[in-house]
Amino acid sequence: MGILYQPLYITTTFLIYLSLILLVPVLSVDPFTQALLSLKSEILDNSNSLSDWTLPSTSSTSDSRIHACSWSGVKCNENSTLIIGLDLSVKNLGGVLSDSQFSLFSDLVDLNLSQNSFSKKLPVGIFNLTNLRSLDISRNNFSGHFPSGISNLDSLVILDAFSNSFSGPLPKDASEIESLKVLNFAGSYFSGPIPSEYGSFKNLDFIQLAGNSLSGKIPPELGMLKTVTHMEIGYNSYEGRIPWEFGNMSRLQYLDIAGANLSGSIPKELSNLTNLESLFLFRNQLSGKIPWEFGKIISLSSLDLSDNLLLGPIPESFSELKNLRLLGVMYNDLSGTVPEGIAKLPLLDTLVIWDNLFSGSLPKDLGKYSKLKHVDVSTNYFVGSIPPSMCSNGVLQKLILFSNNFTGELSPSLSNCSSLVRIRIEDNSFSGDISLNFGNVPDLSYVDMSRNRFSGGIPSNIASASKLQYFNVSNNPNLEGIISENTLSLYSLQNFSATNCSISGEFPPFGRCKSLLVLELSMNNVSGIIPQSISNCQNLVSLDLANNNLTGQIPVELASLPGISVVDLSHNSFSGSIPAKFGSSSSLQLLNVSFNNLSGWIPFKVMDSSAFWGNPKLCGRSLRPCHGPNGLELGSRRTQKLAWVLITCGIIVLAITAAVFGVFYFRRRGKGQWKMVSFSGLPRFTANDVLRSFNSTEEAKDMVPPLGGSDCCKAVLPTGITVLVKKIEWRPERMNLMLDLISRMGNARHKNLTRLLGFCYNKRMAYLLCDCLPNGNLADRIRTKRDWATKYKIIVAIARGLCFLHHNCYPAIPHGDLKANNIMFDENMEPHLTEFGVKFLIQLNNGPSLAKVGNEAGEIERAIKEALYRDIYNFGELILEILTKGKLSNAAMSVQNTSKEVLLREVLDENDVAPSNSVQEEIKLVLEVASLCTRVRPLDRPSMEEALKLVSGLKKQG
């Protein structure tokens, strides 16, 4: 230490000595124990992890041993005269460390402060511990510039500073530590370029710089690191190419430069890395072809080049990669056929090549020589049949083949593929029987075989698929067969869709059907009655039985279901009356019973006639007046005359208005014919029906309704359902892009999403028709007093809806404008995300014109990724708003610049939660999720799937 540090040492020692004399005057304690007690007094120990750091009741002044050697986390030499190790990791400690707290421990070899909540600047006094061989400060909240002086630790072997809040440049002087083998500066906010000096390490084995804000070009000097085996420098924002000099890192086994904004071609020199086992270059802007020379990296086990701008085929040379387990090239512009040699790779278990331009057949022996677990080749141009050996090794879990041109029957190896969890083969031309043996596939949860040419009926053994949640065979018009008796009683089944399948037979009974949410059987030949056992389906939301041969009465049990929202029974032969309970249902949004044999009174105060057409014996305010027992019409004759006068006047006004609009049309050549698209749960309205609903004077054929000067309004459709109407305008050249996204929005169905019921459009605009929920939005109720359980439920519901959009929609649908105003509550106060996708639609329209965009698909994909990152950030902000009743809305300022302890105390106070309450740990974890989601660098944020797992893991969700 020398003369400079002597006064500080004397002062510190004196103060410690004096405080201990005052507290425990009868004891004489060694200075090391005194120093650790001083350290304990200055840090926060909310979990009492240092409870054994106490003074003895008696002490001998002649004992040279250090008393603290018996304390947890303290390691001493054999005779307990020197402290050589201090491990305070994972003890829930916090506070600010001062430079003087480590001044006595000059013999320290190992210092571990990891996984705590220490904040502010890293004390430079640590750099005076020149005997240190291991320094671990990872997973804390140290901030500011990394102090200079790290090179003083010339014996250091391990330097781990992962996951802190350091900013500014990486410390250049770290490169002067010749003994260093592990360097981890990942997960902070370091900025600027990687120092070229980092290429001068002599013994470095592991280097981790990922997940910062690094920029500039990657220095080619890093290629001089001949001893490094593991390098992760991705999730930054560099400029330019991958240096070809990286091919000189002869010992490299693991290289990750994903998500780093790299461009240019992949250097073929990387093929010189003959020890390389893992190469991750996904989420960049790499272009050109995949180097043929990569086939020489025989040791390669994992190769992921996904989400780039790569062209050309998968090189035939990949057939030589005998150790390859993962091949990921999804989200590129690759073409050609998949090399037959890929099927002969003995260790291959994951093949994800979706969303490219591949064609031809899949390799005929795929799955024969390797234990495939996950295959996703969707959204390409593949033809032919499923390779017969796809599941011959019995471990295939996910088979994703949708949106190709596959034909033929299901592979026999799939019939008894007991390992299958998910199979998606929709939108192809498969035929023959559905030969899945559901009884032998115990973990199968998701099956989508819609839009194919299957026949032979739904297998009767589907009733033994105990974990099946989603089953869709819709639009297989020659499927035929019946629905077996126990099919709709599956315990886990949530969605059963078999529309337009020529299914016949009696309507099956319902068993437990505890989980059933959606049942779609329209456009079939199902007969019989709806059984009263439908009352067992207490969670049923949507029922579509239109266009069948059903008879009998509409069961009152159906009208009594608490969450029923959509019921379409049109075009059947139901008789009797409409159950009066439909009229008092708080959840019902759509009821269509048109073209049946119903009679009696319509139990609705406001309802349009189109929902009841084709039932000549029905009467009520929406149709003809009901008659009394003497044949007299119920209601005032004077009122009827007045109504006829008003109707006549209305017709005249409509005729005049139509004439005026006609003139405008011919002058302006019109804006294109209106078209109507209805999604599940909306009757087949025409565009005229819809447009007249929110502009009664509009002929609605060629002109543009004004929506009262706003882009959003409420409207009552012909069935009487109230909807929100959202106007979206577009440039004609953008129409197809916009229509594609709107269609995906309409097919997104989740209990925490507001439904898009349909839309009508012309060449320049569209009107989106959305559910109108009754209980307002979160912004209106943000200051409502709620207990923790209610707030937690809202947070999880938002996370589930957002996770569905991000991970269950292909491609993902960004919400784009997640905020309290766009969280609506239904009649049960269940949160629903509304306006999802709308802002992204507007961005699509405002983007560069097709003539100016070299790769439209690539531009859109990048825009989607950016929007997804913003969604995650906004989710973090919403968490804070909910926890603080709207008082804390600037997440970046509040979370990232406030110590976790202070923020936690504020939230606990706001929620009236005592520090000792068991709820505290739950709130702390939710705050941690908010902190992760609002990190400044988008690539540092978790995915919504990860965020949902974190927040929903607190409690078992029903």
TrEMBL record:
InterPro entries: Kinase-like_dom_sf, Leu-rich_rpt, LRR_dom_sf, LRR_N_plant-typ, Plant_RL_S/T_kinase, Prot_kinase_dom, Ser-Thr/Tyr_kinase_cat_dom, Ser/Thr_kinase_AS. GO terms for biological process: defense response to fungus; post-embryonic development. The chain crosses the membrane at residues 7-27, 642-666. It is a single-pass type I membrane protein. SUPFAM superfamilies: L domain-like, Protein kinase-like (PK-like), RNI-like. GO terms for molecular function: ATP binding; protein kinase activity. Residues 663-954 form the Protein kinase domain. Keywords: Glycoprotein, Leucine-rich repeat, Membrane, Receptor, Repeat, Signal, Transmembrane, Transmembrane helix. It is found in: Membrane. Pfam families: LRR_1, LRRNT_2, PK_Tyr_Ser-Thr. GO terms for cellular component: membrane. Belongs to the protein kinase superfamily. Ser/Thr protein kinase family. This is Protein kinase domain-containing protein.
